[in-house]
Amino acid sequence: MSSLAYDLHVLVRTLDRSAETRLAPFGISYARYLAMVIVADHEGLTQRDLATALGQSEPTASRTASALAEAGWLEAERIPGAGNRRVLTLTSAGHELLRRSGTALGSAFDEVARAVGHDPDALAADVRRMTAIIEDAP
User: Fold this and answer.
1) What was the pLDDT predicted at 83?
2) Under 8 Å CB-to-CB from 19, ≥6 apart: which residues?
3) What is the DSSP string of 48-67?
4) How far apart are CA 54 and CA 65, in angstroms?
5) Rounded distance, CA 125 to CA 129, Å?
């Protein structure tokens, strides 16, 4: 028997696979796209902050940041006097890639929401509210 929790799990898994396919022409994986979204929303965060936001280990987030930097989409500057800590910012090329890929990805998912009778912005707001309630629950 299906439940909302299971159906949402299947939806998220399907969205993730679809995002990988839709982002492939831009030369970026969904995981790296998500990292770029987080950095763009929180310019100046550290690799440790990125790891926390992505739910990854610090070494994994470090490899993600390094790959994005090697591609020219991210800058990782050492914080003077803070050991190996680095501050992350998107380059202009990174911002442009995020704009183009985000537009393609967002418009595709917006069309799906409209196809089933939902306003994409209202649905996104509901999802954020639901996430906040679940995160605040014991």
Assistant:
1) 67
2) 30, 33, 105
3) HHHHHHHT--HHHHHHHHHH
4) 12
5) 6
The DSSP secondary-structure symbol of 79 reads P
Residue-range domain boundaries for the chain: 23-136
SS3 call for 87: strand
Residue 41 pLDDT class (50, 70, 90 cuts): very high
State whether CATH 1.10.10.10 applies to domain 23-136.
Answer: yes
| 86: CB partners within 8 A, 6+ apart | 46, 47, 65, 76, 77, 78, 79
Tens digits of residue pLDDT in 55-72? 999 999 999 999 999 999
Alpha-carbon span 11 to 8, nearest angstrom = 5
Q: Closest Cα partner for 51 from 68, 65, 67, 71?
A: 65
